[in-house]
Amino acid sequence: MIRRWYPWLMVLVAMVLLAACGGRTETPASPLATQSPLTAPSPLPTPAADGATLLQERCTACHTLDRVESARKTAEEWERTVVRMIGRGAKLTEAERAVLVEYLAEHYR
Ligand code: HEC
Question: Is the pTM of this model over 0.90?
Fold first, then answer.
């Protein structure tokens, strides 16, 4: 007769053990949970290689882009304007200047 209760007793013991361990296994689980919202390093900013980005980032320090957007210039004129802006303090490398002048000449001519 007592053998019939044995499986139930085991279940009861198992439940008690699980309940007891449950409290303990949850604690190490919480630091994992705080890590889970992917704290992967954000992708490195791509080098400002395109004209639109350069224009947005380097040509808005002193005036809005209205000056650029209302202007219509040839590539040579843009080259001269950009060189003048660099003389005033715009930060552009040689390569960036070339990319930007090409972009300006294509979009604002
Ligand atoms: C350090 C400040 C500064 C930065 C940065 C700057 N500008 Fe200017 N910009 C000026 C000033 C001051 C004027 C008005 C005087 C002049 O025209 O030289 C001006 C005027 C202009 C004009 C109108 C005059 C013209 O020649 O048509 C354009 C177009 C222009 N800027 C484009 C640009 C572009 C493109 C860039 C990015 C490479 C840029 N600026 C960055 C200061 C700046």
Answer: no
